[in-house]
Design a protein that fits this description.
The complex is a heterodimer. Chain A is of the alpha+beta class. Helix content of chain A is about 45%, strand content about 15%. Chain A has a domain at about 55-120. Chain A has five helices and four strands; from the N terminus they run E-H-E-H-H-H-E-H-E. Chain A has a four-stranded antiparallel sheet. In chain A, helix 3 runs antiparallel to helix 4. Chain A is elongated, with a radius of gyration of 25 Å. By secondary structure, chain B is mostly helical. Chain B has one domain (about 1-390). Chain B has 18 helices and two strands. In chain B, strands 1-2 form a two-stranded antiparallel ribbon. In chain B, helix 3 crosses helix 17 (about 350-375), helix 4 (about 90-95) packs antiparallel against helix 9 (about 130-160) and helix 11 packs antiparallel against helix 16. Chain B starts with a strand and ends with a helix. The chains are: A alpha+beta, B mainly alpha. The interface of A and B includes residues 47, 62, 89, 97 and 100 of A.
């Protein structure tokens, strides 16, 4: 027996970037949270229109950076002054001037890695598939299509009303995609 | 003061310029009294106060050049600020004369009897001699005056006859100007400050000097824009987005300053050669140690952390406090560069330094203010002006 299909996402097309921007504002004002806008290129002001908050990534990277610096400093102090004290060119065991450089390098490296993979994690990447790809029309998003999608996970989502709402704000080719 | 918001021009510049000129003249008079009463320390004290303002004009010149070269939009509204700041070079050239007259008191290498006995100074005498020094100083001020006048003139021309050609002209010329600027600033730092100790040398010295200058000019522009804002001038032209970017520049160049300062220190520390380490030894003597630590913490670590969050750069009060702090630190940095060559056992700041600071500063600000208020305070007919006003950080 085939599994019962359930709606997962509703997709609506808009004809221009400006329309998409206004649609985003209306979806935001209607109280939807789990929705997204898709366009072939970045649209100025979209973050505000969608009511996006600033990403917490900076704070995550900052924390990792401080930990990496302190950790690497501590590691060098431990190796050079505690575990195996070694005199190098007559400098003190704890030569923070020299230790600062690897600590700095490790800080930069770990921050960069955290930034990339943190961005992935916050964006739910990597993933192999997304329900919007059930729509054949959606392929135009890489060319001249502008779409709004609202996920069924959104508490306000209603398979009967949400497509109608998108139509009422000017959406065309409304598709309720099931999985 | 009265400001016409439609033409962006001051119709009445108010008493600010006159007040600062009077304060400047009075303070220079007091400085002259200082010369009579205390000849021994006069020139070094004067140099600290003088270099402070020279560094602001130099920073302003860089800000203008970089503005043209990058073709960025956000800083178009701030271009007149830096253009006006660097129009002060003729005045600064005149105020350099006391230092030129005091060459014998300031520079060890001007004493022929010392140079003859010192193989190192003899070897350098082809470069470090009074004639060539004078020639170089004239070349520096000539170059700086020429570049800043040229760019300001073209920029004003743009107000009357806007054209794409002018934008391209300013950009094309800025490239060779930038090379000349870099060389002249580096060598000016070598000649005026580094040669106070003619035995010691560091190739990164000019870059270090430049880093401080740029921090000063960005801080100054931030505070000056905030001052105009408090008078209701340009308050919807220079927005929080511009302050945010100024904050970012401050932050970036704090790191740059720290990076250059550390690079110089680290190589000398690592090699541990006495003729190089003597520089830091002087600055580790007595109360100089406190100044050195103040710079590490106050010129780098504290402002670095205080500008780290995004919100800090977008809060005008906070940004203003940090900018003011950086200006004070830049002054301390100059004290740290210049005075340990003379005061070997600890900090000794003369009152003459402060009268010079206010004296040169008063005339400097009067000059800046007259140029600034004589023309539209923004390049209003630049094609990118509108975009600059509407600029938003993503």
């Amino acid at each position: 027996m085939e599994k019962q299909k359930k709606p997962v996402i509703v997709l609506a097309e808009f004809s221009s970037p400006a329309e998409l921007l206004h649609a985003a504002e209306k979806v935001r004002d209607a109280g939807y949270k789990k929705f997204d806008c898709h366009s072939p290129f970045p649209i100025h002001g979209m973050d505000d229109a969608m009511g996006e908050k600033r990403s917490p990534l900076g704070w995550i990277v900052g924390t990792v950076a401080i930990l990496a610096f302190v950790g690497m400093m501590g590691f060098q102090i431990w190796t050079s002054a505690v575990d195996y004290p070694l005199v190098l060119s007559g400098k003190p065991f704890v030569s923070y001037q020299a230790f600062g450089i690897p600590s700095w390098a490790v800080m930069v490296l770990s921050s960069a890695i955290t930034a990339v993979f943190g961005m992935w994690a916050l964006n739910g990447m990597p993933r192999y598939h997304h329900p919007v790809f059930y729509s054949d029309n959606f392929a135009r998003v890489t060319d001249d299509g502008f779409f709004v999608s609202i996920e069924a996970r959104d508490p306000l989502f209603n398979a009967n009303n949400t497509p109608g709402f998108l139509e009422s704000i000017g959406g065309k080719n409304i598709e309720l995609l099931e999985e | 003061m009265n400001f016409d918001a439609s033409t962006y021009k001051f119709t009445h510049a108010g008493s600010v310029g006159k007040t600062s000129m009077i304060v400047g003249a009075l303070m220079l008079l007091l400085t002259a009294v200082g010369y009579v009463s205390n000849q021994e320390i006069f020139f070094r004290a004067y140099m600290v106060g003088y270099m402070f303002w020279l560094s602001l004009a130099l920073g302003g010149l860089f800000f203008t050049l970089v503005n043209h070269l990058f073709g960025s939009e956000w800083n178009i509204v701030l271009r007149r600020f830096s253009e006006s700041l660097s129009k002060t070079f003729p005045l600064l050239a005149i105020l350099f004369i006391p230092l030129w007259l005091g060459m014998h008191d300031l520079y060890h290498w001007t004493h022929t009897e010392v140079v003859v006995k010192d193989p190192m100074l003899s070897a350098k005498s082809g470069y470090l001699n009074m004639t060539f020094f004078t020639v170089r100083i004239i070349i520096y001020f000539g170059l700086w005056t020429f570049i800043s006048h040229f760019l300001h003139k073209k920029s004003l021309l743009q107000d009357e006859h806007p054209s794409e050609e002018l934008i391209m002209t300013m950009r094309r010329f800025s490239a060779p100007f930038m090379v000349l600027y870099a060389l002249s600033t580096t060598f000016a730092a070598f000649d005026i400050i580094m040669s106070l100790d003619p035995h010691w040398y560091s190739t990164i010295y000019g870059v270090y000097f430049f880093a401080g200058n740029f921090l000063f000019v960005v801080s100054f522009i931030t505070l000056f824009a905030a001052y105009l804002k408090s008078k209701g001038i340009l308050d919807n032209i220079i927005t929080v987005e511009h302050y945010h970017d100024l904050g970012k520049l401050l932050f970036a160049f704090l790191v740059f300053w720290g990076y250059i300062g550390f690079s110089q220190y680290f190589l000398i520390w690592y090699a541990n050669i006495p003729e190089e380490t003597i520089y830091y030894l002087y600055r580790w003597e007595g109360s100089w140690k406190i100044i050195t630590m103040t710079l590490v913490l106050g010129h780098f670590l504290l402002p670095f952390l205080s500008l780290l969050p995004r919100a800090a750069k977008r809060n005008l009060t906070w940004l203003g406090i940090v900018a003011g702090w950086i200006i004070i630190m830049h002054f301390i940095d100059l004290v740290w560069l210049i005075l340990p060559n003379f005061e070997k056992h600890g900090v000794h700041l003369s009152w003459i330094t402060f009268t010079t600071l206010l004296g040169v500063g008063g005339l400097f600000f009067w000059n800046f203010w007259s140029v600034f208020t004589a023309h539209p305070v923004v390049p209003l007919n630049d094609r990118r002006f509108e975009a600059s006003v509407k600029f938003k950080n993503v």
